[in-house]
Structure formats: C-alpha cells, structure tokens
C-alpha cells in the first residue's frame, strides 16, 4: 500500500506533467488534487470537496478581488494611462532615459490603482513602447522597463496577490497592503535609477530627446491626472485610517473610477462598458477558477499531512533559519519560471506558512517576500505573463528582445528580495503603525 506521502508525491508529479502538456492550470490543479484525494481515501475522499469549495469561494476577503479588477478595467478604457505617461514624461524628459523613467513612473501610479500587473503592462505598454521606439530607443531597453515596472502592481497596494494571500492565511489585507508599500516604492525608485544610469552609460540605448517643457506645462499635466491621484488617496487613505475595510474601499474605488471615466474623461459609452464588464468577468472567473482548483489540491496535501511534515522537517534543521528562507526563495524563483503567479501562491502558501511560523518569522513579512518572488515570476521566461502581454499589445516587438531587456530588472528584483530578507522592518514597520 502506498503511504500518504507517496500518494501526494504522485499527485505533484501528475500536476507537473499536466502543466508540461500545457493543460490549463486550473484543470491541472483540480485533476491532480482529486486524483490524490481518491488515492488517499477512495471515492469518499472527494465527497466533501463541493461543500468545501463553496465555503472557500465565499471567503469575504475574496470579494475585494473582482472589485479591484473592475476598478482597473474601468481605468484602462479611460485614457488615463496616456495622461499618466504624458505627465511623467514632462517631469522626467530632461534626465537620461527620460521616456524609460516615465514608463516606470506611470506604471507605478497605475499599479497603485489597478492591482493587476497585466493591466498595467497593457495600458502603459501600448503607449510608452511605440513612443520609445520612435525616439530611437533600443527595443530591449524599451520593453524591459515597461514589462518590469508593470509587475509593481503586484506589490504596491491594492494588490490582488495580497488579497489571495490573505484569503489563505488570514493575515489582514490592510496590513499586507501597508507591508508592500515601502518595498514597492523603493523598487520603483531603483528601477528608475537603473534606467537613468543605463541611458547615461549607453546613450545609444536611449538617445536624449531635445524637448523642453515649462513649469506651467508640468503643473498642468499633474492637474490633468489629479482625479487619479485623488482615487489613490481615497482607496488607500480610507484603508489606512481605518475608515473602510479593503473590500469596502474597493467598492468605493470602483464607483469613483466610473465617475472619473464617465464625467472627467467621457469614455463610458456602451462599447467601453461592455468591454469593461466582459473583461472583468473573464479575469475574475479565471482567478476564482484557479482559487477553487488550488483549494482542492491543497485539501489533498492537508489530508496527506504534507504541511505538518514540511513544518516539522524545516524546524528540525540544524541550520540558520535565514538559510532556510534563502533556500525557499530560490525554489520559488525556479517554480515561478514554470507556474503562473496566482497558482504558485495558492499552492505553496498553505505548505510554507506553518514552517515559516515554526521558525519564528512573521507571516506578514513572508507574504511580502512571496509577492516579490511572484513579481519575478511574471517577468521570467518561459511563463512570464507580463512578457507575452507586452508582445500582444506591441506585436512588432521580438520576444528575444523582451527576454533580453528583462534580465537587468530581474537582478534588481533579486536585490530587493535580499534587502527585505535582511531588513524585515521594510515590510513590517508601516503595518505596525496602523495595526
């Protein structure tokens, strides 16, 4: 008779095989999870799956997910992305690589409203990359700055990944949002510094643009995007002051996004409304399908007592806990090359968090580390969704250029991962103030 751990191992092998065969990830997770449950307890092992699945999807924390997705989709059709990029360019145009720095800056602000990285890449990429290419920027330089900075939406609140992490662990969404803010802004600053230094050292990669703007034009551009800035303050301010829960803030933010898009930008015609609701339904259904399927797979792992076994093994290791963290981060980076970010988070979190707590680490801090890892996953070939999203909105780009352009930003992400590991206060100080 195969031991429970052996059944779980076979289920994991089946999952990897299905992923290798390009099976949709939610199907791969569900099939391997159900197969494992049958292997553990026979057909009776799956009797409670439907009720457990419904209970998981009724998690109140998950209500925020479709609302933030709706908020991002409404802003995507507003034309706000163009204004954000234009405003950033008026402030960064005199520095080397000004267009690249503008792409990072506008992606950062858009990410602080949408929470979904591919939305940021699509909205900013379709304007910024053609503009950079027209000004003589190298394709790798242009694509790398957009694909990498688009991933900031995963770390800078409101982040869909933090919502999913909270739904699994019970860690406060508001504290997770606060924990990601400082690392996210610091990462954006490092990306801008890299872009400027790279353009200064290799001006052929990013030729200087002889274009000047007056202070009046710069201030006018800021005024034009002020509704977006008010929206960020409205959503995040209401959360951090305790005036609203993250879910309530998401609802208010979505309504405000409709107001901004309809009254300020005049872009809420029937065609755009249809696009918004269809896209929101599609993305939400995809996310919730993965959440449900990942829960089935996790239920199988719990039935096989894998989280307990991993926790006992890790805690019993006679090595520095930080070496364990480093090993976990390395494994997550490798897994991120093969599995999409949401699926990876939902599968590994129930396994790793008990071990992390057993080592005496803060699960909130680990959640920030995990999301930085996931940022690397969405810009790492061959599965990196941001890379293919950028290719879809700028078809003229060569995938080889996109892959080459992302490499320096992967190094920056790895540096941030090491920095937050060495200085946990970067992720825990701000949540401590609001808790």
UniProtKB/TrEMBL annotation:
Positions of the TRAP C4-dicarboxylate transport system permease DctM subunit domain: 12-426
One GO molecular-function entry: transmembrane transporter activity
Mode of membrane association: Multi-pass membrane protein
Primary location class: membrane
Residues annotated as transmembrane: 32-53, 60-81, 101-124, 136-156, 176-197, 218-243, 249-265, 277-302, 322-352, 364-385, 405-430
Gene Ontology, cellular component aspect: plasma membrane
Keyword Cell membrane attached: yes
InterPro entries: DctM, TRAP_DctM
Subcellular location: Cell inner membrane
Pfam family, one: DctM
Keywords recorded for this protein, A-Z: Cell inner membrane, Cell membrane, Membrane, Transmembrane, Transmembrane helix
Name of the protein in its database record: Permease
Organism: Streptomyces abyssalis
Lineage: Bacteria, Bacillati, Actinomycetota, Actinomycetes, Kitasatosporales
């Amino acid at each position: 008779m195969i031991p429970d751990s052996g059944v779980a191992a076979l289920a994991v092998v089946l999952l990897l095989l299905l992923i290798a065969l390009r099976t949709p990830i939610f199907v791969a997770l569900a099939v391997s999870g159900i197969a494992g449950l049958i292997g553990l307890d026979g057909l009776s092992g799956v009797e409670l799956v439907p009720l457990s699945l419904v209970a998981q999807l009724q998690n109140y924390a998950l209500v925020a997910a479709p609302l933030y997705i709706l908020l991002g989709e409404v802003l995507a059709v507003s034309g706000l992305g163009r204004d954000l990029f234009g405003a950033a360019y008026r402030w960064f145009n005199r520095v080397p690589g000004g267009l690249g720095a503008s792409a990072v800056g506008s992606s950062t602000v858009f990410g602080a409203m949408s929470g979904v990285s591919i939305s940021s890449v699509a909205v900013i990429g379709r304007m910024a990359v053609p503009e950079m290419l027209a000004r003589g920027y190298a394709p790798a330089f242009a694509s790398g700055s957009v694909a990498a900075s688009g991933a900031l939406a995963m770390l800078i609140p409101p982040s869909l990944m933090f919502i999913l992490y909270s739904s699994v662990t019970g860690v406060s969404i508001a504290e997770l949002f606060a924990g990601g803010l400082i690392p996210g802004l610091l990462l954006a600053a490092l990306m801008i510094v890299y872009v400027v230094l790279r353009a200064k050292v290799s001006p052929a990669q990013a030729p200087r643009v002889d274009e000047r703007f007056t202070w009046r034009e710069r201030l006018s551009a800021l005024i034009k995007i002020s509704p977006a800035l008010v929206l960020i303050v409205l959503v995040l301010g209401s959360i951090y002051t305790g005036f609203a829960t993250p879910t309530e803030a998401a609802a208010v933010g979505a309504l405000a996004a409709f107001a901004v898009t309809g009254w300020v930008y005049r872009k809420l015609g029937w065609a755009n409304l249809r696009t918004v609701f269809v896209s929101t339904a599609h993305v939400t259904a995809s996310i919730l399908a993965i959440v449900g399927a990942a829960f089935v797979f996790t239920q199988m792992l719990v039935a096989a007592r894998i989280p307990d076994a991993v926790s006992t093994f890790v805690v019993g290791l006679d090595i520095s806990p930080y070496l364990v963290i480093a090993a976990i981060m390395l494994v997550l980076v490798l897994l991120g090359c093969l599995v999409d970010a949401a699926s990876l988070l939902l599968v590994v979190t129930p396994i790793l968090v008990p071990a992390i707590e057993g080592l005496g680490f803060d699960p909130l801090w680990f959640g920030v580390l995990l999301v930085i890892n996931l940022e690397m996953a969405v810009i790492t070939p061959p599965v990196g969704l941001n890379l293919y999203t950028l290719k879809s909105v700028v078809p003229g780009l060569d995938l080889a250029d996109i892959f080459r352009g992302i490499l320096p930003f992967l190094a920056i992400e790895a540096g941030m991962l090491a920095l937050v590991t060495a200085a946990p206060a970067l992720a825990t100080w701000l949540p401590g103030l609001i808790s």
